[in-house]
Amino acid sequence: MQSPGRVGTEQIVFTRGVPAVEALPAHLIGECIQAVLEAPNGWSVLQYGHNGGYLPLRQLVGEQYQVSPEQVLVGNGSLHLQDLLAALLIKPGDVVFVEQPSYDRAIKTFRRRGAKVLGIPLEHDGVDLQALEHAIARQTPTFMYVIPDFQNPAGVTTSTEKRQALVDLAERYNFWLVEDVPYRTLRYTGTSLPLLRDLYPGRVLTLSSYSKLISPALRVGYLVGPTEIVKALTKLAEETILAPVLPTQAAVVEFHKRGYFDTNLESLKQLYAPRMRAIIAALKQHLPAVPFAEPEGGFFVSITLPEQSNHTNLLARAQEVGLTLSNGQDFFADALDEQEDVASLGARFVRLPFCALTPTQIEEGVRRLATLV
User: For residue 8, what pLDDT is reported?
Assistant: First the structure.
């Protein structure tokens, strides 16, 4: 859409949604781990522990979500819990719905567990409800996986009206909603909307993680759901990982107790908000003809290039100008019908994580992308 111009030599990486290096609170985490190990019963977090996770953390999460600790399972990141949940709920031949596009690793996880994963087209305010109802009429899913806040990869936030419609459909047709909310508290503008579980907890399983809020390497995620589901998942966890990683789970509790979580969250917002504004401005400047959903938080914004754009071999050509992109195909599940050309959509789809890049890098990266298409 623009003529190629001079590009810098710095490699700009628009691939994984990782926290900025300067956002990782190494010193504070170190303090917390040291305090945990030096406590009078510090030895206890070095022993085998309850397979549901560190009880004080389950209590903390339970207080946040107004549920009992028996309704909370802490695992090694939310993807670990997604896998356990898929292993528990999916039987061969089952159908799972996801937003289209959706989190690539979730799609792979559900497929690996034997599900046929169908994508419900995503609009700028959430899934296409008419397409969803038509899909349900053909086959009720075992569950539908949604990322309602600052969706990965599209950056979309599901509207309150569509959240209500989702829980109404789940109740009417008796399927689970799996809401994944790791970015929910990373809101940089606008007003927070209700969780799906706030609207109808009886059909909702909530997943989240501390990976984006403290550190990915701690590997601490959690699931909130009905007691019977949590009990079954806890048994499955014991059979697969034997015991939880108590030191890091205890460190998260200490991080909260010392007041670090709230101050760190505010620092993250101060760091990331200008980067979100930078990528919105860069897209509007360099790719003005390409519509996109403007995020209000999180890590991602995405674009789908027009059919007439030059998107052939985009990943390889991007490398030649010092730009690393993800394969857009990975974010697409199976199509609902033959009319939906998922291969074409994937070839034209570009996810742009912005949090790990400076505003200057973001502007230059989008400029380079514009020269290619």
Answer: 54
Tokens 């394969």 sit on residue: 327
10 Å CB burial of residue 160 (0-12, 13-18, 19+) is middle
Sequence-distant (6+) residues with CB within 8 A of 298 are 149, 150, 151, 152, 155, 183, 186
Judge if the upstream peptide bond of residue 288 is cis by omega within 30 degrees of 0: no
Per-residue CA distances from 164 to 131, 199, 296 (Å)? 16, 7, 20
The pLDDT value recorded for residue 3 is 38
Domains of the chain with bracketed CATH: 12-24+262-372 (3.90.1150.10), 26-257 (3.40.640.10)
Burial 233-267 (b: 16+ CB within 10 A, else e): bbebbeeeeeebbbbbbbbbbbbbeeebbeebeee
Positions of the chain with pLDDT under 70: 1-8
DSSP readout, 98-164? EEES--HHHHHHHHHTT-EEEEEEEEBTEE-HHHHHHHHHH---SEEEE--SS-TTT-----HHHHH
